[in-house]
Amino acid sequence: MTLIRAPQVLTRKGSRKTQLYAEIRAGLFPPPVRLGSRYAAWLESEVDAVLKARVAGATRKQLRGIVRRLLEERRAMMPRLDV
User: Which residue range(s) make up the domain with 35?
Assistant: First the structure.
């Protein structure tokens, strides 16, 4: 599992931070994983999956479905913490 920070995501997408976060709010891009109060990163595999779908011509509806599936997979992969 490789994590990438916002500058790398923005370079890969070719967009600005405001567009990235608008797409996250719209369900068109997966949100980052919070690793601390001031540290967040994206799973490289999730970024790659969404970008490949865009290149293949996925619609907004299809992208939302892909992001939903990726987030379900992320939740299933993360251990449950009973604190």
Answer: 3-77
